[in-house]
Amino acid sequence: MDIHVLTLFPEVFPAVLDASILRIARASGHLRVHLHNLRDHAADRHRSVDDRPFGGGPGMVLKPEPVFRAVEAIEAELERPARRILLTPQGRRFCHALAAELAAEPALLLLCGHYEGFDERIRTGLAPAELSIGDYVLTGGELPALVVIDAIARLLDGVLGHEESAASESFSHGRLDHPHYTRPVEFRGMRVPEVLRTGDHERIAAWRLRQALEHTRVRRGDLLGKPESGNASPDPGPGLHVKETAP
Ligand SMILES: C[S@@+](CC[C@H](N)C(=O)[O-])C[C@H]1O[C@@H](n2cnc3c(N)ncnc32)[C@H](O)[C@@H]1O
Which of 12, 132, 138 is the best mutation target for the ligand 1 pocket, counting ligand atoms within 8 Å of the beta carbon and taking the most? Predict the structure, then answer.
């Protein structure tokens, strides 16, 4: 999968992209991340990409011209069409089902905002899907882009080994993961549940399922018997649908 990122701060990305599963996903060719500096698409000699808001008020707004120019230049070079995604706290809340849906795309183009955000004509003119990673405001779209890239990379076929299969993790079946234990058998008076040491795979699987359901009931009752949580936000922009997952 190819993920293009348009950002004013490409230097934020390498530390995360070069570590752990993301490094492996990239080294094995499952994931290619292409960083594009928005400033390279500014037209004036100061390379300006933002300006003061009409109507007054604090902060700066990302201008439409460099963003349109950048998107058009990136898309002109693409072998496969990329789904445009604008990162904004006003977008559809990101969740496992959306990550799975995006992981099936051949390519994505993530647009990272900064300052007060994007001139509204970027949203209306480029008609991207709009994604939020949660109900809080961050300084820029770089951390949200990394969150989206990481969540998607884990779901790409062949990225996680058997041991870490994404299919057994929280949210993949509309419930939370079961508890995990490792050595020692006893730690400060707390023992590993005996069933996990029996070698009886059926009993272990049944115990894990019961525990997962109980954890979900106690912590995230909304996941049980309901569509995947986090999907209640308004119009997400064209083409972002959430499939309901069975509990
Ligand atoms: C300071 S924020 C702008 C917030 C905007 N004025 C608002 O209140 O909706 C700057 C940029 O950070 C990114 N951003 C901040 N919080 C985000 C979130 N929760 N999810 C996705 N992107 C976010 C967006 O790209 C946004 O354009």
Answer: 138
Q: Name the CATH superfamily for 168-223.
A: tRNA(m1g37)methyltransferase, domain 2 (1.10.1270.20)
Does any ligand 1 atom lie closer than 6 A to the CB of residue 144? yes
Per-residue pLDDT of the chain (247 residues; tens, 9 = 90+): 999 999 999 999 999 999 999 999 999 999 999 999 999 999 999 999 999 999 999 999 999 999 999 999 999 999 989 999 999 999 999 999 999 999 999 999 999 999 999 999 999 999 999 999 999 999 999 999 999 999 999 999 999 986 567 888 999 999 999 999 999 999 999 999 999 999 999 999 999 999 999 999 999 999 997 554 443 344 445 556 555 444 4
Q: Please identify which residue in the block is written with the tokens 């234990």.
A: 181
CATH superfamily of the domain spanning 2-153: SPOUT methyltransferase, trefoil knot domain (3.40.1280.10)
pTM score > 0.85 for this model?
Answer: yes
Q: Where are the beta strands (DSSP E) in 182-233?
A: 186-187, 190-191
CB 93 within 8 A of CB 150: no
Cα–Cα distance for residue pair 200/214, rounded to 1 Å: 21
